[in-house]
C-alpha cells in the first residue's frame, strides 16, 4: 500500500484510495484488532504464564509439572527429560520452558527430591541437561499437594487428558517458595518466606492472634525489613552480604544477598575496584557447599571503610521491591503477604473439611454395607434366592428378607446395595465370623465418631495438621536471613579517593585535570569542593575535570555535608574603606553551584584573613594597622577562641575601624569544641553521634574504646563511626588505661578454672587473654574495680557444696595479659555468676587544660564593638 494514498479518518481508522473510480474505498479498523487480539494476548500471558494463582501458588507450567510427577510417581527417580515430555501433554509450549521451570522448583528444595547436578543458586551455575538429572516427588509434596477426590478437573489443551484446575495445596506454598513474573501490563514479585514461620503464623491466624511475616532468603544474608510494607507495591527490602574481618588485611563474605550469586557479586566488586571506588589486592572464591569469598586488601586500607564501600558501590547490598500480585477468580489481585496467608490458611481449613466430609461419607458407606452383609449372612437371607428363577425375583426376595432387620441402619437400602450382596462369594459366606464382623463394625463406628469430632472442631484439627507438618518436615528449615535495621551509608564518606584535586587560584579554576597547577587534596569523582574567594563569596561545586568558580581563590577543600566540626575563621573589610569584622562559622548544608556572600554585600568588600579548621581550632593572630592619623596602637593580638561560632550569614564582630596593613599568625590554635559524645546503637551495631542507643561517653581525639569478645580477645580502637563490630562482643566501653580487667576462664588443657586481672598492654594490638587450647572458654569478665563472683559447685556423690563468693581484687593482683592467673578451685564447678561489685572510689584524673566551649554570654554581633589591646597587652572591648 502506497503511503501517499493513505488519508486519516476519525480516531484510529484509515482508508485506502483506489485508482479505479469504480472501486469503493477499503477501510481497515485498527481498533477492533487491538481490542480483540492484543487484549486476548495480554489476558493469556497474565492468566496462563506469568502470575501464580492464589489457590495453590502455582503458575500453569508449575502445576502441570507437579501433576505429571504425580502421574509418573512410583517411588523411584524419573529422568527429568521423561517428566518434561510427559508434561508436554498438558503444557502447549516447548520443552525448554518446562525444563527451566522444573529446575527452579527443584532448587527450592521443597517439592522435588532431586538427584544429579541441579545447578547452584549460590554460584549461579546452571543445571545439567534434563537427560542427566533425575527427580521424584518429595514426601512433603505427597502430603500436602494431592487429593484427587477433592480436586476440580478440566480438559487439557487438546482434549485428550484431564488436568487439575488447581491442586488442593494444604500449605502456604506461594509464600514459602516465592514467585516472580512479568506479564503484559503488570508483574509480580512475591518474596520467599520461612517454612517454620509460615506454619506458626497460620496457627496464629487460626487462633485469631496477631502475626507478622518477613521474607527469608535461601542465600542468607542480612536484611532490613523496616520498609517491607507487607510485600505490597511501594515496599522495599534492603539485603546485604554477610561480611566479616578475617584479619587486618582480609575480608570474608559468607552469605550473599538474594537475587545475586557469587559470580555476579565478584564481578561487581572488580568493577568497583576498576572504577576506583574501592581498593582491593585480589579476590579468592572458595565457594562450594557454602559461600566463602576472600577479599585481600592492600596495606594501609581500612577494613571497616572497605566493608561500607562494598555495601555502597557493589552488589553486596541490593534493594528488592516486592509486589504482591496473584490470580483469583481469573482476575489479577494485588494483595499483601498477610492476606495471602489468611486466604491460604482459610483454604487449607476448607480442604481439610472437604477431605473429612468425604472420609465420613466413605466410612458411613462401609459401615452401612458391613451391617447389611452381617444381616444378609447371619440371618441366612441368601437362601431365599435359591427358588427364584428371575433376577427381579432375586432382588425382591433379598429386599423382603432384609426389611425386618434394617430399622437401625442410617439410610434406606437401595437396589445397588442388594446387587452388591449378591456378589458375595460362597467361600466368604462359609468362613463368615460374626464376632470379627462386629469388631469391624465397631471399629468403623469409632472412626466415624472421630471424623465427626474433627469436623466439629475443624480449627483444632487444622492446627494439629500444621503442627504435624512442622514436626515432620521442619528440621533444618530454620531462618537463614538475619533481620536487622541498617544505617544509611554515605557514599562520599566511604569512597576511595583515587584522584587528585588541583586549583589555579589566580584564574579561578578547580578540577582534577589541572595537573600543572597547585595540588589541593586527594578526592573522588563523587566528592564536592568548597571554594572561598577573596571578594567574600563562597561556592560548593561537584568535582570535575575543570570548573570555573571565580578569580582570586583564597581557600579550597573537599566539602563534607553536615560537618559541624570544621570551623572557618575569617576577617573581612566591609566595602572599599569600611571597618573590618571578624567571624567564626561552619557550613553544614548548601545549594550546589550557588554563590554565597559571606560579607555584608557592600561593593569592594574583601577577605583579609581566612583559615579552615577541621576540628574547630582557634588560632591567635597579630593585626598590624596602617599609620593613619593619631593611632596609638598599630599592633594588637586577636584570639579567635573568644568568639562564638555563628552561621555563615552572620555579620560578625568589629575588629577595628582603621585600615589593616597585614595579619600575622602568632599562635596555632587548639580545638574549641567539646569532646564528642558517642553512642552505640545495638540495633544496627554501629556507633553514632545522634543520641541513638547507649551513651559510651565523651571522647577527645586520643580517647579509645575497649572491646572484649566472648572468644577471649581484647583490643582498643579510636572510635570511628564506620567501625564494624564482630559477633560475640560482650564489652564495649570507653577505655580507662589504668583500670584493670578481671576474668574467670576455663583452661581446656588443665581442665581447671583460673582467675586473672590485667591491663591492656598494647593499645594498638588485638590480644587473647585466655589460653589458646580449643576447649578453653571465657566464663565471666568485668571492668569494674572490685568485681565479685559467685561459684556454684556441682553435686559430688549426692553432696552439694555451699556456694562460694570470690572478691577478685583480693584473690589476685594485677599481672601481665599473658599470665595464666591463679587457680580458682579444684572442685567441679556447675555455674559462675557475676554479683554486684564492691564499692570503690575512682581516682580523680589529673586536670587537663580546659577546652574552651563556645558560649553566647557576650553578644558582639551588633557591629558596634571594637576588639583591641590596652597598654598592658590585655584584650579590650570598646563601644564605638
UniProtKB/TrEMBL annotation:
Question: Topo IIA-type catalytic domain spans which residues?
Answer: 51-494
Keywords, comma-separated and alphabetical: DNA-binding, Isomerase, Topoisomerase
Q: Which reaction does it catalyse?
A: ATP-dependent breakage, passage and rejoining of double-stranded DNA
The annotated regions of Acidic residues compositional bias extend over: 839-860
| Gene Ontology biological-process entries | DNA topological change
Q: Name one GO cellular component term.
A: cytoplasm
Q: Where is this region: Disordered?
A: 1-22, 839-880
Which Pfam families has this protein been placed in? DNA_topoisoIV (PF00521)
Q: Where is the active site?
A: 132 (o-(5'-phospho-dna)-tyrosine intermediate)
Q: What Gene Ontology molecular function terms does this protein carry?
A: ATP binding; DNA binding; DNA topoisomerase type II (double strand cut, ATP-hydrolyzing) activity
Ranges of Basic and acidic residues composition bias in the record? 10-20
Show the PANTHER family listed in the entry: DNA GYRASE SUBUNIT A, CHLOROPLASTIC_MITOCHONDRIAL, DNA GYRASE/TOPOISOMERASE SUBUNIT A
Annotated family: Belongs to the type II topoisomerase GyrA/ParC subunit family.
Name of this protein: DNA topoisomerase IV subunit A
Taxonomy, top ranks, is: Bacteria, Pseudomonadati, Bacteroidota, Flavobacteriia, Flavobacteriales
Amino acid at each position: 500500500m502506497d503511503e501517499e494514498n493513505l488519508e486519516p479518518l476519525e480516531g484510529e481508522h484509515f482508508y485506502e484510495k483506489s485508482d479505479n473510480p469504480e472501486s469503493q474505498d477499503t477501510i481497515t479498523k485498527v481498533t477492533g484488532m487491538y481490542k480483540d487480539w492484543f487484549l486476548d494476548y495480554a489476558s493469556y500471558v497474565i492468566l496462563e504464564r506469568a502470575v501464580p494463582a492464589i489457590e495453590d501458588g502455582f503458575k500453569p507450567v508449575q502445576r502441570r509439572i507437579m501433576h505429571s510427577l504425580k502421574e509418573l510417581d512410583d517411588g523411584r527417580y524419573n529422568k527429568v527429560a521423561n517428566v518434561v515430555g510427559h508434561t508436554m501433554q498438558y503444557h502447549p509450549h516447548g520443552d525448554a520452558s518446562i525444563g527451566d521451570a522444573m529446575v527452579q522448583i527443584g532448587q527450592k528444595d521443597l517439592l522435588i527430591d532431586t538427584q544429579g547436578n541441579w545447578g547452584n543458586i549460590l554460584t549461579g551455575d546452571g543445571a545439567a541437561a534434563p537427560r542427566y538429572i533425575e527427580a521424584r516427588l518429595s514426601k512433603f509434596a505427597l502430603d500436602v499437594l494431592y487429593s484427587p477426590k477433592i480436586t476440580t478437573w478440566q480438559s487439557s489443551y487438546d482434549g485428550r487428558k484431564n488436568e487439575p484446575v488447581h491442586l488442593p495445596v494444604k500449605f502456604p506454598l506461594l509464600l514459602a517458595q516465592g514467585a516472580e513474573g512479568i506479564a503484559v501490563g503488570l508483574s509480580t514479585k512475591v518474596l520467599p518466606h520461612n517454612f517454620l514461620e509460615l506454619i506458626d503464623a497460620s496457627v496464629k491466624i487460626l487462633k485469631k492472634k496477631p502475626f507478622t511475616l518477613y521474607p527469608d532468603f535461601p542465600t542468607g544474608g542480612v536484611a532490613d525489613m523496616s520498609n517491607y510494607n507487607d510485600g505490597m507495591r511501594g515496599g522495599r527490602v534492603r539485603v546485604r552480604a554477610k561480611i566479616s574481618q578475617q584479619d587486618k588485611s582480609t575480608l570474608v563474605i559468607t552469605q550473599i544477598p538474594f537475587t545475586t550469586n557469587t559470580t555476579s557479586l565478584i564481578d561487581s566488586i572488580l568493577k568497583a575496584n576498576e572504577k576506583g571506588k574501592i581498593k582491593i589486592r585480589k579476590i579468592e572464591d572458595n565457594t562450594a557447599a557454602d559461600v566463602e569469598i576472600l577479599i585481600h586488601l592492600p596495606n594501609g586500607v581500612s577494613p571497616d571503610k572497605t566493608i561500607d564501600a562494598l555495601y555502597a558501590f557493589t552488589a553486596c547490598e541490593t534493594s528488592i521491591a516486592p509486589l504482591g500480585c496473584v490470580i483469583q477468580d481469573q482476575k489479577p489481585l494485588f494483595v499483601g503477604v498477610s492476606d495471602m496467608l489468611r486466604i491460604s490458611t482459610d483454604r487449607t481449613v476448607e480442604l481439610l473439611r472437604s477431605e473429612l466430609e468425604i472420609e465420613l461419607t466413605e466410612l458411613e458407606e462401609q459401615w452401612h454395607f458391613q451391617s447389611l452383609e452381617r444381616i444378609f449372612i447371619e440371618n441366612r437371607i441368601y437362601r431365599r434366592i435359591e427358588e427364584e428363577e428371575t433376577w427381579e425375583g432375586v432382588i425382591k426376595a433379598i429386599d423382603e428378607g432384609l426389611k425386618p432387620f434394617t430399622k437401625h441402619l442410617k439410610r434406606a437400602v437401595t437396589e445397588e446395595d442388594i446387587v452388591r450382596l449378591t456378589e458375595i462369594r460362597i467361600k466368604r459366606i462359609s468362613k463368615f465370623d460374626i464376632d470379627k464382623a462386629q469388631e469391624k463394625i465397631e471399629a468403623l463406628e469409632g472412626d466415624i465418631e472421630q471424623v465427626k469430632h474433627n469436623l466439629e472442631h475443624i480449627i483444632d484439627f487444622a492446627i494439629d495438621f500444621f503442627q504435624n507438618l512442622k514436626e515432620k518436615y521442619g528440621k533444618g528449615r530454620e531462618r537463614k536471613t538475619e533481620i536487622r535495621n541498617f544505617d544509611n551509608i554515605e557514599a562520599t564518606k566511604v569512597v576511595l579517593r583515587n584522584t587528585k584535586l588541583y586549583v589555579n587560584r589566580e584564574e579561578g579554576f578547580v578540577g582534577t585535570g589541572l595537573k600543572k597547577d597547585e595540588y589541593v587534596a586527594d578526592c573522588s569523582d563523587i566528592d564536592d569542593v568548597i571554594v572561598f574567594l577573596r571578594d567574600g563569596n563562597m561556592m560548593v561545586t561537584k568535582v570535575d575535570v575543570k570548573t570555573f568558580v571565580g578569580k582570586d581563590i583564597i581557600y579550597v577543600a573537599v566539602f563534607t555535608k553536615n560537618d559541624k566540626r570544621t570551623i572557618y575563621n575569617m576577617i573581612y573589610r566591609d566595602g572599599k574603606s569600611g571597618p573590618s569584622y571578624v567571624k567564626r562559622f561552619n557550613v553544614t548544608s548548601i545549594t550546589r553551584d550557588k554563590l554565597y556572600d559571606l560579607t555584608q554585600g557592600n561593593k569592594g568588600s574583601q577577605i583579609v584573613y581566612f583559615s579552615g579548621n577541621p576540628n574547630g581550632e582557634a588560632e591567635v593572630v597579630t593585626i598590624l594597622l596602617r599609620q593613619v592619623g593619631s593611632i596609638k596602637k598599630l599592633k594588637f593580638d586577636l584570639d579567635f577562641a573568644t568568639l562564638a561560632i555563628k552561621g555563615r550569614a552572620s555579620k560578625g564582630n568589629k575588629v577595628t575601624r582603621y585600615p589593616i596593613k597585614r595579619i600575622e599568625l602568632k599562635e596555632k590554635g587548639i580545638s574549641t569544641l567539646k569532646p564528642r559524645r558517642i553512642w552505640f546503637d545495638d540495633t544496627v551495631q554501629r556507633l553514632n553521634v545522634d543520641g541513638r542507643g547507649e551513651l559510651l561517653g565523651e571522647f577527645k581525639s586520643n580517647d579509645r574504646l575497649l572491646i572484649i569478645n566472648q572468644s577471649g580477645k581484647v583490643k582498643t580502637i579510636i572510635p570511628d563511626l564506620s567501625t564494624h563490630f564482630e559477633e560475640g562482643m560482650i564489652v564495649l566501653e570507653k577505655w580507662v588505661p589504668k583500670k584493670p580487667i578481671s576474668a574467670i576462664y576455663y583452661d581446656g588443657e588443665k581442665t581447671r578454672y583460673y582467675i586473672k586481672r590485667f591491663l591492656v598492654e598494647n593499645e594498638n594490638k588485638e590480644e587473647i587473654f585466655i589460653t589458646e587450647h580449643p576447649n578453653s572458654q571465657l566464663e565471666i569478665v568485668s571492668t569494674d574495680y572490685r568485681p565479685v563472683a559467685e561459684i556454684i559447685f556441682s553435686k559430688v556423690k549426692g553432696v552439694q557444696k555451699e556456694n562460694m563468693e570470690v572478691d577478685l581484687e583480693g584473690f589476685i593482683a594485677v599481672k601481665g595479659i599473658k599470665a595464666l592467673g591463679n587457680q580458682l578451685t579444684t572442685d567441679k564447678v556447675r555455674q559462675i555468676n557475676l554479683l554486684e561489685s564492691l564499692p570503690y572510689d575512682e581516682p580523680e584524673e589529673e586536670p587537663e587544660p580546659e577546652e574552651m566551649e563556645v558560649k553566647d554570654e557576650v553578644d558582639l554581633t551588633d557591629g558596634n564593638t571594637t576588639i583591641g589591646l590596652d597598654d598592658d597587652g590585655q584584650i579590650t572591648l570598646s563601644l564605638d
